[in-house]
Amino acid sequence: MGAEEISCGTGSDRFSRILKHMLTQRSYYPLYPPVEEVNMDYEKFQSFGQMPLTPDILIIPSELRYFVKDVAGCVCVNPGRLTKGQVGGTYGRLLIQHKATSEDGKRASPCLAAQVVKI
Questions:
Q1: Is the pLDDT higher at 38 or at 68?
Q2: Which of 6, 18, 28, 89 has the maximal Cβ count within 10 Å?
Q3: Gap between the Cα atoms of 49 and 64, Å rounded
Q4: What is the C-alpha R_g of the chain?
Q5: How far is CA 74 from CA 45, 109, 112, in A?
Q6: What does pTM read for this prediction?
Q7: Residue (of 28, 31, 26) closest to 3 by Cα position
Q8: CA distance 74 to 20
């Protein structure tokens, strides 16, 4: 997705912008039309590729550096890779406790603590 960006805003990093695109467009693949190299099954995409609502926690494994970020009220975690060749990599740990919606109506994150642990 990052390679397909034609404009980049300032003030946030690249991966946060990509995650914000996913969350605001409520799609696991928010590029339309898709890149020509991507085989897209539109019938399946309508059933399984959409996010009906913003998740509280989104786990996005990636080759990029591991992170934990709050993007648009969603805790986004890239745990990294468990192994990197012959050596240990990283994994994510979350402490979650469901909270009722706050009095002012804003989303409250259920994630009390998050960390990425190196092996």
A1: 68
A2: 18
A3: 22
A4: 16
A5: 22, 7, 13
A6: 0.72
A7: 31
A8: 10
